[in-house]
Design goal:
four-stranded antiparallel sheet, single chain, Neuraminidase, 2 domains, alpha+beta, flat
Length: 335
């Protein structure tokens, strides 16, 4: 190879090197970054994350609350309209005819029986004192009856307390069940056996075999159930089984079925034992015992096991634990 050929080769190689280097970078870049789509997708996710907000969640919850409000007002309006119709029907079909009949009856007595006798007594120059006194008694009786009928409550409307219609609406960010399942072993002493909502103090009441706890799901963290030290079982050998609240009262049953405790919480959140009922207070002589308790504004319902057939029945008791109705025995399949 001559000097001219060497120069030509050197020049051609120098011209090819940028192309070879560019081609090398292109090949290896594709190996390192196989797809530009991945980078683009990541960038889009980043932009979406930066724009993320929960305004739409709040708006949706607001819309659900407004829908519930409209439906509640609409339903209450339907009840009100129906009761207006019922009131008008009772007034026109029952009260007015009854009142008219009574007016006619009294008027007839006055015109045809009382007034003629009074006129006769007045015209008699020597009236009989006994007849006069008797007539006065009849008139006094009629006057008293008229007053009573005039003041009578011809129509009575039984209206429920509006407070009983106010169902508590709680807005929480987590369910109480998930929180309790995650921390239950750390929070409670013994086995969790029952739980209910107590509207009067707006907390969950949680029952274990030996203790009672209160849990407010709306409190900020750390939010742990609070043990009520004032509520104590008869002794440690008696396990608690069920509970039921009403207003500021709380009824607790025992697993052995021989006792039921009635507690009350004051306006200052102080708990006190109102009464401890024994089996003899609530059960019949041949009953084994009582197990579950549920109550409302008027009655207390107890599940009671009978001794002769080992079957359950539900007895209805008054708030002072007097039996109002003996329940029907349930089938074995319902036990």
């Amino acid at each position: 190879m001559g000097s001219s050929d060497a120069k030509l080769f050197s020049l051609s190689e120098s011209m090819r090197m940028p192309y070879i280097f560019k081609n090398f970078l292109s090949i290896n870049t594709k190996k390192l970054f196989p797809s530009r789509g991945v980078v683009k997708s990541t960038q889009e996710q980043l932009r979406a994350l930066e724009k993320l907000n929960f305004t739409n969640i709040h708006t949706k919850c607001q819309q659900e609350l407004e829908s519930w409000h409209s439906a509640a007002i609409g339903h209450l309006g339907q009840i009100y309209s129906q009761r207006l119709t019922d009131l008008a029907q009772v007034y026109t079909q029952d009260v007015c005819p009854d009142a008219e009949k009574y007016k006619q009856k009294v008027t007839e007595q006055l015109k045809h029986r009382i007034m003629p006798r009074i006129n006769k007594i007045l015209d008699d120059p020597t009236p009989d004192p006994e007849k006069v006194e008797k007539m006065q008694n009849i008139l006094c009786h009629m006057k008293s009856e008229c007053n009573m009928m005039r003041d009578r409550q011809w129509i009575r409307i039984q209206l429920p307390d509006i407070k009983s219609l106010s169902i508590p609406i709680k807005i929480i960010k987590t369910a109480v069940s998930s929180h309790l399942s995650e921390h239950g072993k750390e929070l409670f002493e013994g086995i969790l056996v029952d739980m209910c909502w107590m509207p009067s103090i707006s907390v969950f009441v949680i029952l274990t075999i030996h203790s009672v706890y209160l849990y407010d799901p709306l409190k900020s963290k750390p939010n742990l159930p609070v043990k009520i030290d004032a509520i104590q079982p008869l002794d440690r050998t008696h396990a608690l089984a069920s509970l039921s609240p009403f207003e500021r009262d709380l009824y607790i049953n025992y697993h052995k079925g021989i006792h039921m405790d009635h507690y009350r919480v004051s306006l200052t959140s102080q708990w006190s034992l109102e009464k401890r009922y024994s089996k003899s207070n609530c059960c019949e002589t041949k009953d084994i015992g009582m197990r579950d308790v549920r109550c409302d504004s008027q009655y207390i319902c107890l599940s009671i096991m009978q001794q002769d057939d080992l079957k359950w029945r539900l007895d209805i008791m008054s708030r002072d634990m007097k039996r109002i109705r003996r329940g029907v025995v349930m089938d074995a399949g319902e036990n």
